[in-house]
Known about the structure:
Oligomer: single chain
Number of helices: 2
Distance between the termini: 12 Å
Number of strands: 11
CATH architecture of the largest domain: Sandwich
Strand order of the largest sheet: 3-11-10-7-8
Shape: rod-shaped
Amino acid sequence: MLARGLTLIALLVPLVLAGQAEAADRQFVIEMRDADFDVKQITVEPNDRVVLVLYNNDSVSHGGIDIFHNFAVENYVDTVDVLPGEVATVTFTANETGDFLYRCHVVGHTLMRGTLTVRAPAKTPAPEFALVALLVAALAVAARVRTKR
Length: 149
């Protein structure tokens, strides 16, 4: 009986720890080529530190005109220019949940868009609830051991 009670307590410990998850560093590489992004969807968790590495893989010019791109994420990143063959990096903390458009503002680059999704926080029991459940389980085990004697 004591072994079962201890097993139950051991199973409840992850509940206590689940409510204490930390934000992660998330990195994504986005290639810009032929007026398009190769990544159309980015999904992160709330409070993740997001690092976007933007690579303009277009040639230096098309018909004598340099092809530059830019990049912006609504609510997070103002416009960043990326010249042909160059790399730009943007970093931000995803502290607002929802879907956010990212895109290039250059005329004619309508395919250069995607969605950043910051998921809603997971509905996990508060650590206090799990601690109370753990305490109740321990008391129940102690009571059963005492009544068996």
